[in-house]
Amino acid sequence: MKKISAAFALFALMMTIASVSYADTYVNGYTRSNGTYVEGHYRSDANDTKADNWSTRGNTNPYTGKKGYK
To answer: Got the DSSP string for the chain?
Structure first.
């Protein structure tokens, strides 16, 4: 019984870490007022820091593979 509980706890921890690590939002495509179409894309979720954004130097966008530059 202890092995099942430990395995479940480990699984729950791994799922929590995975959901926090890849917190992202899909943005639907839209047309700007000047007629330019912007394709739908993923972006990192908004929070109180810019240090974990995909465009920040040291980070990599998991969808495009582009490295951060800011």
So the answer is: -HHHHHHHHHHHHHHHHHHHHT-EEEE--EE-TTS-EE--EEEEPP-S-STTSTTSTT-B-TTT-PBP--
The encoded tokens of residue 2 equal 């202890």
Q: Walk along the chain (70 residues) in steps of 10 and give the mean pLDDT of each run.
A: 68 60 81 96 79 80 84
pTM to 2 decimals?
Answer: 0.45
End-to-end CA separation in angstroms for the chain: 50
CA atoms of 23 and 18, how far apart (whole Å) = 9
CA 31 to chain centre: 24
Q: Which helix (H) or strand (E) holds 26?
A: strand 24-27
